[in-house]
User: What shape does this take?
Amino acid sequence: MNSYENTFITKGDLGDSDSKKILEKYETIISKNSGKVLKIQEWGLRSLTHKIRNSRKGFYFHIKFDGVGKTIEELEKAEKIE
Assistant: This one.
């Protein structure tokens, strides 16, 4: 297994319950696909360098995990849908 890091940004006005659902979703994807979550960090609300869909701020999450190629494929697939 290799070690990976994944950082993603959500809308700045996302509620606590919604952000927990998103984190649980990614944790589930990693664990179902031969991976293991090592650490989750919530970096908080930060300014974006440029507007994305009329937003200037986003909430940053960072996940460190061990996984295989299938784990990465499934994460990428889920992120494209979101």
Observations:
- The first strand starts at residue 2 and ends at 11.
- The CA atoms of residues 30 and 40 lie 12 Å apart.
